[in-house]
Amino acid sequence: IMLQKDSALIYDTYKKLADLSKQLQNYTAQATWLGKYYTGNNDANNVDLFNWGLAWYRAEDFVMADSVFGMYTVKYPEQSYGYYWKAKSQALQDSLMETGLAIPTYQKLIEVLQTDTANASYKKWMIEAYGYLAAYEANTEKDYSESISYFEKVLEIDPENADAKRYISILEKDLANKEGEKLP
Q1: pLDDT tier at 172, thresholds 50, 70, 90
Q2: Which residue among 46, 55, 75, 157 sits deepest, i.e. has the most Cβ atoms within 10 Å of its Cβ?
Q3: pLDDT tens digits for range 79-129
Q4: Among 130, 123, 118, 141, which Cα is nearest to 167's?
């Protein structure tokens, strides 16, 4: 009984140290303490796991954030939060879009969000995911047709999205110029 009481006390201490670190805006320390709080703690829940990942994100340690949000997606695969923050963490690891690291996670986010269109973040996150995929197709793959199709999906969600309209117009001109170059 004493050991159980001590472990509850130690987890309370970890949580207090994490809260103090957050107040001091020392997010690396907060993430470290939240990791200690979460690991092996039977009372820890999805919010604790999420906050641990978010602390790493705020600390700008996107590899660790990606890892923790990856744990979240495995444990709570039906929830969009883990995929959203994992994708954002991966996008910042691959900020020049050279490897497409965030592509599979953004695709999974879209899939999960489509099962929960009432989600308060649905519209914003879908636009962000499709926008990222469109940018990757245009800038990295140079597949303007595919990029346009992603921007058209943005317009299905937000018909007045000025960025999507502008980028479609630019890409269609680039595509027409490319087609013109191929003619004899």
Answers
A1: very high
A2: 55
A3: 999 999 999 999 999 999 999 999 999 999 999 999 988 889 999 999 999
A4: 130
Q: Where are the alpha helices (DSSP H) in 114-143?
A: 122-136
Neighbours of 84 (CB within 10 A): 22
Average pLDDT over residues 48-67: 98
Residue 31: closest CA among 91, 108, 89, 92: 89
pLDDT at 2: 45
CA 140, 142, 143, 147 torsion-angle sign? positive
Write out the DSSP string of 77-106: TT-HHHHHHHHHHHHHHTTT-SS-TTHHHH
Instruction: Kindly give, in sequence order, each residue whose CB lies less than 8 Å from that of residue 177, ignoring residues fewer than 6 positions away.
Output: none
Q: Tell me if 56 sits within 8 A of 31, measured CB to CB.
A: yes
C-beta atoms surrounding 80 within 10 Å: 24
Distance CA 114, CA 147 (A): 20
Q: What is the DSSP letter of 118?
A: T
Q: Which structure tokens are listed for 11?
A: 């987890």
**Residue 62: which H helix or E strand, with range?**
helix 62-75
Q: How confident is the model at residue 11 (pLDDT cuts 50, 70, 90)?
A: very high
